[in-house]
Design a protein that fits this description.
By secondary structure, this protein is of the alpha+beta class. It is 35% helix and 20% strand.
Length: 255
């Protein structure tokens, strides 16, 4: 079960924890291989000329490479991957890293350059993709309240573009509630019924907007007592009516 502790994320099939600083080879052998599918219990579907046993055997025979090509300084690969001859590998982007790795491992220039082009396209799309502000993930969507309860919320939203300014506007708020657009502080004394707060976040640079709504369900604290009391009165009325009915029937049949 994921518990937020990075040190125990990798566990072998028997439960052994794999050190998060382990080498790629250690992770492969002590973690990955242990989770190989048992061909006798495989739930996968295979074509008539294939079987779980066949793939299990191929998986056992396969020996991956644990070499880090980037540590090998190859000037020819740098040229084909459009990497500056003197630049540090820490300055390479993802496309250059993919190209260098693929070209080193396959010795296929076309394959390496295809990786360079493909990843560069993805990076370009990501750079031009503009996302609206994100509200604080801890903000609730609904709140159950008691009439008269004091509500205090700090509403905030941020942009992934750190220098951008995000402006907050309350599109709707409950009666008598206050919302400070500069601080994002919402305050309200809950009133019985169903109410909602709607806040808009605006990225002033890209004019991108997002919205967060919170619904408030407010009840009176003695609702249940009131209902019980009402049921008691109804029972008393029904009992009186029943007694009157018996008296009337006795009068009709025994007079």
């Amino acid at each position: 079960t994921y518990d937020g502790i990075a040190n125990n994320d990798l566990r072998s099939k028997n439960g052994t924890i794999i050190n998060n600083n382990a080498s790629l080879e250690q992770i492969h052998k002590n973690f990955g291989v242990t989770w190989a599918i048992d061909p006798s219990s495989s739930l996968f579907y295979y074509e008539s000329d294939q079987s779980a046993k066949f793939f299990a055997e191929k998986n056992r025979e396969f020996i991956p490479s644990f070499i880090d090509p980037i540590k090998e300084d190859n000037s020819s690969i740098r040229t084909n991957c459009k990497i500056n001859a003197t630049s540090s590998s820490s300055s390479w982007n993802q496309a250059q890293r993919a190209c260098y790795y693929d070209l080193y491992m396959t010795n296929d220039i076309n394959f390496g350059q295809a990786s360079l082009i493909g990843v560069n396209e993805i990076l370009s799309i990501r750079m031009n993709q503009r996302n609206p502000p994100s509200f604080n993930s801890l903000l609730p969507l609904t709140m159950n309240l008691i009439h008269g309860e004091q509500v205090y919320l700090n509403v905030s939203a941020t942009s992934e573009y750190l220098v951008h300014v995000v402006a907050l506007t309350d599109l709707h708020r409950p009666e008598n509630a206050t919302f400070n657009q500069n601080t994002g502080i919402f305050q309200w004394t809950a009133i019985k019924g169903e109410h909602y707060l709607s806040v808009e976040a605006l990225d002033k640079i890209y004019n991108l907007k997002s919205k967060h709504d919170i619904i408030f369900y407010v009840k009176v604290s003695d609702d249940e007592t009131t209902v019980a009391s009402g049921n008691g009165n109804n029972n008393q009325v029904n009992e009186v009516n029943f007694i009157i009915l018996i008296i009337v029937l006795n009068f009709l049949f025994y007079r």
